[in-house]
Each structure stands twice: as structure tokens, then as C-alpha cells.
Design a protein that fits this description.
Elements: H1 3-7, E1 9-14, H2 23-32, H3 37-72, H4 77-84, H5 88-108, E2 112-113, H6 116-123, H7 143-151, E3 164-178, H8 181-199, H9 203-228, E4 232-237, H10 247-251, E5 254-268, E6 282-290, H11 308-329, H12 336-375, E7 376-379, H13 381-409, H14 414-429, H15 437-447, E8 450-452, E9 458-460, H16 463-470, H17 474-486
Antiparallel strand pairs: 1-4, 2-3, 3-5, 5-6, 6-7, 8-9
Helix pairs in contact: 2-3, 2-13, 3-4, 3-5, 3-13, 3-16, 5-13, 11-12, 13-14, 13-15
Length: 488
């Protein structure tokens, strides 16, 4: 392995179950693969009926979700709760019911709860944010989510799951090109400090715990690599910390790269003041959040302060300057110019530390503003409506792809069907996904258009019969009535 490869940093990510193709494009591409025009028309009709039927199935569940959230909307929920005259126990039950519905919708939309390992990987590097961001835990409620997870256990919950939950879905890439002059200076100081730590052998003391954890993580990755490798993919992280030292890199423009979470949803409740009980539940939806900067979506963030490296630089330069000044005063003839030069250097170092911090604060404020205006998609009811529609779109695409494979390629076991669906998506759309065959088959059987033979293989009915089984939907009757009204 050459030096350039050594400097590459890749992150292994599990491939998700989301079908990343717009439904109209998916339907029309599959329809064009059908040879006979009559079958093509029946297939398009079936796709519409599948969507209408699935939407009707979820309608009642979605209405319950919205009705419950209206009681816990941070804006108007308190007034509606007062009008209901409910006891504290009844309100507790309703909010747990809301969370149960919400987590089901999240799962159906293929959102996953971010684990501690994923958070550690995200925090193991820096991208645009160079300040340590912490959550003010005293401002967050700890009872709501703690009670939910006690009644609904989940694996690999993060340490902060009693205060807030971060759901994530999808992976992307973010690139930024700039000169990064101040960041390069900080990087040089950091490398110099690391060199001093190595020479003084203090590095072993401070890094013992982290290296032990890193070894455990590597061991765990090795154990799981054989079974996860085919479902995983790798994304390269390009950071200033790993760049080669050269005049071209130090003085020229660089492009850094960071994997992003395509969608993030944060759920939390603020802590109750002494005067009243807080019942509002916040649901905030973000897009394209760089993993290393995911702190910008955290709730109730504390104002950033100087980093430990800033304090080391600040105090170290002050001590060195003070010792040098005292040493020069002990000389027979104190040279004022020497003292002035030393003090100027110390003041320069301190000013550099201060102005670097101020620049980082400006960057932080810009990122927060960007997350509010550009990266925050919605919150509250808007997020829930988006999720409800997202569930339907994903389920419809899964059902359509699975039925198409059975229709075109004949009987298949569940494992074969899973593989064929993934191959179709790759061949026709050049996209990889971990197809959720279990869910697709269950929906097809519930619709009554797919069955199993005696040896467990799945097969579908013909297109005309499938349309007859589902039957004319309410939406089709409404469209037909509208067309007859508009006709002369």
C-alpha cells in the first residue's frame, strides 16, 4: 500500500432498504419492458389500484397519528389538552400511543435510530464545524423517551436515547472547496502538538482508552465483515487533518469531502419549568447533514467555548512568554527590545487563538442558520405528513417491483425473489438497495394477487385477474364521475 492509500479514510456503511427511484419513473420503465400494449395498460392500471388500496389501508392509522399529535404540538397542543380535561395518567397513555405510531411510521419509512457506533464514527472527524458542541441536558425532558423504551425495548440504543432520538436514512456526499487558511494553521498546530506528545511519550497515557476501544471496534468489524460485506458499501472521507504537507496544499485551494445523512429526524421534549408540565413533542426534519457536523441538528445546544487545543495553545504560549520575559529581566542589562519582541509574540499567539475561535463561531452561526433555512425540511405536522406519504410511496414501489418479477420471471422462493428484485433495480436504474422482500410479499398476499405453492414458492395471478381481485377503487369512481361532469 503506497503513502496516498494510507492517507485515505473510508467509512463502511450498511446498505439501506430504500428504493431511491421516483415512483413515476419506476412504473413507466417497468411498463415499457412489457411486450404487449394491452398488458402494458393493465399493468399501469394495476399500479394505480395498488397505490390507491395501500393509501386506504394506511388512512385510518395516519389519521390517528395526526389526531394524537394535535394534542402534543408544541404550538397549540397545550390549549387542546386543556379542552379535553384529561388526567395526567390519560395524557401519559396518549403520548405513549403517539410515540408508538411515530416509531412504526419511521420503521416503515426505513428510518433507523442512530447508534452510538454511528455517532462515534460521525464524530471521529471534522468537516466545516470546528467547535465542540454539547447539549444542555438540563433543558431536555428525560421521562418521555425513557418510559417509551422501557415498554418498547430496542437494540443498540445510544446513551442519549432517554433525552432525544436521532433517526437517519440515506447516504450522500458533500464537497466544499476553499483555501481554509485558518483551519490549516490549526492543523499544523495540532500536528506539532501530537509530535511533542509522541516525543514526551505522554500520548500513551491519553490515548490508551481510545485505542483500546478502537481495537474492540476493529475486532467487532472483522467478526461481522463476512456476513455484512455484500450489503455494505464504502464512502471516502477527505479531511484537512489527513492532507500531505506541501506548499501547494498549504497555499492552494483544497476540496474536502464528507459523507452525509440524506435525511435526519430528531425527536425530543423540552424539560418542564417549575410552574407547569411541558407536554409538547418536537419532531424536526433535516436533509443532507454532513456526518462530522451532525451536532448542528442537536436540540438545546450550549454556546460553544474554546477547545482544549485552544486553551493549550493559549496557556502554553503565555507560560513560555512569561518564562522568557523573567529570564531576560535577570540579565545584567535587560534588553527592552527583547522583552518587547517576546511580549509581541505572546500577544500574537493569544490574538491568533482568539480570532480563530471567533472565526469558528462565525462558521458555527452560519451552519446553524443554514440548517434552519436550507437544511431543515419541516417540523411537527409537516414532517408527519411527509412521513405518511413516504411510507405509501416506498410500499407501492416494493409491491410493484416484486409483482413485476413474478409476472415476468415466474415462480420464485422468497430468497430468489429478493435477489431478482435487487438485480432488476441495478440493471434498469443502476441503483443498489437492500430490497425489503418480506414486506412486499406480505402486502401482495394481503391484496390477494400472490400465493404460495406446496413447496413454498411464490407465484402471481395474471394482470387482468389481479385487477379484478383488487376491484374498482373509490378514486377511480371519483375520476370517472369528474370526467362525465366535464363531458359536453
Amino acid at each position: 500500500m503506497d503513502s496516498k492509500k494510507k492517507k485515505k479514510e473510508t467509512i463502511r456503511l450498511e446498505r439501506e432498504s430504500v428504493i431511491p427511484i421516483l415512483k413515476p419513473k419506476l412504473v413507466m420503465t417497468l411498463a415499457n419492458l412489457i411486450e404487449h400494449s394491452s398488458d402494458r395498460a393493465d399493468f399501469l392500471k394495476l399500479c394505480k389500484r395498488v397505490e390507491y388500496t395501500l393509501r386506504a389501508w394506511y388512512l385510518l392509522q395516519f389519521e390517528d397519528l395526526m389526531q394524537l399529535y394535535s394534542l402534543f404540538d408544541p404550538v397549540h397542543g397545550a390549549q387542546k389538552l386543556e379542552q379535553q380535561n384529561l388526567s395526567a395518567e390519560e395524557i401519559d397513555t396518549l403520548e405513549q400511543n403517539f410515540l408508538a405510531y411515530l416509531f412504526q411510521i419511521m420503521d416503515k419509512s426505513n428510518f433507523k435510530i442512530a447508534t452510538d457506533d454511528e455517532i462515534d464514527v460521525a464524530h471521529s472527524g471534522q468537516y466545516l464545524l470546528h467547535l465542540p458542541i454539547k447539549v444542555d441536558e438540563s433543558k431536555l425532558d428525560k421521562k418521555l423517551l425513557e418510559r417509551y423504551f422501557a415498554e418498547h425495548p430496542h437494540e443498540n440504543l445510544p446513551d442519549f436515547s432517554d433525552k432525544y432520538v436521532i433517526f437517519r436514512r440515506g447516504i450522500g456526499i458533500d464537497r466544499t472547496s476553499d483555501y481554509f487558511f485558518m483551519e490549516k494553521v490549526d492543523m499544523l498546530i495540532g500536528r506539532l502538538w501530537a509530535w511533542i506528545m509522541r516525543k514526551t511519550r505522554l500520548e500513551r497515557v491519553f490515548s490508551r482508552k481510545s485505542s483500546a476501544r478502537r481495537q474492540r471496534d476493529l475486532k467487532k468489524d472483522d467478526e461481522n465483515s463476512s456476513e455484512m460485506e455484500q450489503d455494505d458499501f464504502y464512502v471516502e472521507r477527505i479531511r484537512l487533518e489527513n492532507m500531505e504537507l506541501s506548499f501547494r496544499n498549504l497555499l492552494g485551494k483544497l476540496t474536502i469531502q464528507e459523507p452525509t445523512f440524506d435525511r435526519i429526524i430528531v425527536v425530543y421534549r423540552r424539560a418542564s419549568p417549575k410552574t407547569k408540565t411541558e407536554r409538547g413533542i418536537f419532531v424536526k426534519h433535516f436533509k443532507n447533514i454532513p456526518m462530522a457536523d451532525m451536532e448542528i441538528v442537536l436540540p438545546e445546544k450550549r454556546n460553544p467555548s474554546l477547545t482544549p487545543m485552544d486553551w493549550v495553545t493559549f496557556l502554553g504560549s503565555a507560560i513560555v512568554g512569561l518564562v522568557a520575559v523573567v529570564g531576560s529581566l535577570d540579565m545584567p542589562k535587560g534588553d527592552l527590545w527583547v522583552i518587547f519582541a517576546i511580549l509581541s509574540t505572546v500577544i500574537g499567539f493569544c490574538a491568533k487563538t482568539y480570532f480563530t475561535f471567533q472565526q469558528n463561531m462565525v462558521t458555527y452561526q452560519n451552519l446553524i442558520t443554514q440548517s434552519m433555512y436550507d437544511k431543515q425540511l419541516d417540523s411537527g405536522k409537516g414532517t408527519l405528513l411527509h412521513l405518511c406519504d413516504d411510507v405509501i410511496q416506498q410500499e407501492v414501489k416494493e409491491v410493484i417491483v416484486a409483482f413485476f418479477i413474478l409476472m415476468e420471471q415466474g415462480k420464485a422462493t422468497q430468497q430468489d425473489l429478493d435477489l431478482r428484485c435487487e438485480e432488476l433495480i441495478m440493471e434498469e436504474f443502476n441503483e443498489r438497495c437492500n430490497f425489503d422482500v418480506d414486506d412486499a410479499v406480505q402486502k401482495l398476499q394481503k391484496l390477494g394477487i400472490v400465493s404460495q405453492d406446496t413447496i413454498g414458492r411464490y407465484y402471481c395471478v395474471g394482470l387482468k385477474r389481479a385487477n379484478e381481485i383488487i376491484g374498482t377503487t373509490t378514486e377511480e369512481l371519483v375520476l370517472k364521475a369528474k370526467m362525465s361532469e366535464s363531458a359536453p
